[in-house]
Amino acid sequence: MKLDERKRFILKAIIDDYIFSAEPIGSRTIARKYNMGISPATIRNEMADLEEMGYLEQPYTSSGRVPSDKGYRFYVDFLMKNEKLTEKEISEISGVFKKKITEIEDVIEQATKVLSDMTNYTSLVLGPQLNKSSLKHLQILPIDEGKALVIVVTNTGLVEHCFIKVPIEFTGSDLTRISNLINSKVQGLSINKITPSLLSKLKKEIINMDDVIDLVMNITIQSLNKLDGNKIYLGGATNLLSHPEFKDIDKAKKFLLFLEEKQILYNILTEASFSNEDLVVTIGSENKYELVQDCSLITTTYKVAGKTIGIIGVLGPTRMDYSKVISVVDYIKLIMNKIFSELFNDDK
Amino acid sequence: MKLDERKRFILKAIIDDYIFSAEPIGSRTIARKYNMGISPATIRNEMADLEEMGYLEQPYTSSGRVPSDKGYRFYVDFLMKNEKLTEKEISEISGVFKKKITEIEDVIEQATKVLSDMTNYTSLVLGPQLNKSSLKHLQILPIDEGKALVIVVTNTGLVEHCFIKVPIEFTGSDLTRISNLINSKVQGLSINKITPSLLSKLKKEIINMDDVIDLVMNITIQSLNKLDGNKIYLGGATNLLSHPEFKDIDKAKKFLLFLEEKQILYNILTEASFSNEDLVVTIGSENKYELVQDCSLITTTYKVAGKTIGIIGVLGPTRMDYSKVISVVDYIKLIMNKIFSELFNDDK
DNA sequence: ATTAGCACTCTATCCAGGAGAGTGCTAATC
DNA sequence: GATTAGCACTCTCCTGGATAGAGTGCTAAT
User: Whole-number Å distance, CA A8 to C1' D28?
Assistant: First the structure.
């Protein structure tokens, strides 16, 4: 049985209302609010149909109706109208990113904050995954006797450092020489091109320095991995406490602890982005992890030159303002694409 | 009127019990639990006295008694017995710090985590304040045409970096020369020694490079400031939700938002540490900020070579296990002192 | 097909009553 | 004079019943 025009209208009305009020919606409410020219009784019949078809649920006998996950899915896919951001919202978002930005991390942090502020839900951002990034420059600086600092710079402008121990007899120019050698061999290579065989070739060229080479290369690889963007940024965790879904303190606590499990968040984000869709909405029980099965997640990927380099998402209760969140997520994605494209091209 | 032995015993018994149970304590409870050889009626009289003197309070007429802030103060200063950490706790704490530690930030993060885990309250750590730290090494690396990376290393082993724009005609050796010049003048100087007059002297020596010098020095100063440890680390914020004091979701939310105000936390921590005491306990209304006036804060400072370089603290409800927290804070402070002394001496 | 009418269901709220914990006071006791 | 038993009293918390309110489902009329 397909949903006719009237059923769709009623379903949409109920979900719109429920998203706003968080209370079960009754037939009279709908009849009063939308002047449809039909009586509550008719609406009741339609609602009974919609329930039988699985789009609505009743918290208890003869209470009002509440959308089911299937209902939300239909709403998101077919009913919801595309809400445009207001001028004010657009300027608010743009304003945040107007400040001059030098560090990639700043962009991410701003995005995280503005995502949660604008939606009043919790935002998740997966930092740029730069396994497509490559080594731009490597430098070993002498610091103390027997101690040196390795600096790794990627073509994407990320910098990582680490102290290492070196044989005490090494001078600064020794280290510079090693840096130059490594640079000449490895510069421009992406991380997955730096293989053991390459390393052993390198070692042959720098005789008697095996230990240092090993150490430096390990650190380089580690650094590149570290910069690989596996870091999850989290914003507005406390926002969730304003929603009635989390009025139970125990549930709220469980959820906040859940948000500290970065590995799980990482999985959730990346799994969602496997889809071909540009923007993915995962509703309630569609989620794998039990604790978020009464939540919905809206994610999208940000890109540079057509390549996905990271993910942003918003997590909130299933009763989420999908339209609003989709608009915000989409707009912020666009801004991030722009900023990163500029940053990376600048860097070439 | 001074507190005689028996009043002290009763006050201590009530506070001990209340810290454990979070319920108002009645005379019968005390009589039954501690076989004092006196009847509940006698204890009742003593409790009435203690209330009149301001050490106890009654939530409502003829309910049991609850400690007042004054009561807690007396308890902390005179009554509380010094709880020793168990073997298990000691090995648990030490275990966390056993992993090899290379970065100062790791130490701080570990300390934050273990502080909150061991106490089940919220931990605050103010990172090493290194305005006593000095410039160890400065290096400008060419990255792209017209673009360079400034690396600043302090004697305390912290590293900061920043990209700058340089005149396009500068070569790598130009930059190295500038680095060397700056190094020779500024190396070893603490940040407050880097004055405008010193800078203008520097500029005279490197003619025609005013702009770059300015830029680099600004970044150096900024970096040193940034490394200055004003960063607040926060641990176990959700721990507070387990305590009945925060069972009201609204209060919990307010509190969690409060914990995001790093500037205020910074003030709270530093103000507490102005005291001459090694370990400072600030109880309830002794706190300046209204939102924490039903909380207590226990802070201490960690040092290197007798110099205070940072602060650690635990924030929890006034009904806090003072004895336990003091032991934990104290022990972790000792470990941090040791680790930092080693780290910094290593660095000389 | 729609709707008015009505009986019915379930929740939430209010209120009264009783149990329970605890106090304060008084008078008796040590 | 300190201590205590006894007792009336206070206040909270829990329970259960009564009621109002929102909303449904069904039936019969339109």
Answer: 29
